[in-house]
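Exam revision sheet. Question 4 asks you to relate a sequence to its structure. Input first:
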Amino acid sequence: MRKFLLFLALVFAVRALHAAPPNQRPAWQTKVMESMPLLGHRNWILVVDSAYPLQASPGIETIETNESQIDVVRYVLGSINNSIQVRPDIYMDAELPFVPDGDAPGASTYRREVGDLLGSYGVQSLPHEKIIANIDETSKVFHVLVLKTNMTVPYSSVFFRLNCKYWGDDAEKRMRDKMAAAH
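Answer key, structure tokens:
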């Protein structure tokens, strides 16, 4: 009996050692956290709906989050805002405002929630195919991280093109103007 109890204690101890800590981050959050210091301007992070295609370009990495789209967008936005090197240029599909609840239940709710979350940012709308073409071209040279969610509303993806946080578009233009004037 003593050996049996010792065996049970050993089994429980081994299981406890191999159990994941209760506060461990999901793998997708760990990936974002580990990638953020490496990402810079011209990289993209995409938070996409569940039907978004698995793209084949070697520069595109896709991770299934199995989370709500709003939660993933919120986390990615927080990670970008907490970085020292990048700021988001945000794109969404131009089709989303035209997706009716009758064909895609929850579309209006999602538009309101994502609008509240991104309202202070200058979100640009482009046709879905144009955004995909931009990402495809970019992925030939730069890394694109795709985070798939459990969203079932079409044209609901949020596309973050990363831009330099400490060097703005105005500073770039002033420098380019000086360079042109020097020639």
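Marking note for examiners. The chain has six helices and six strands.
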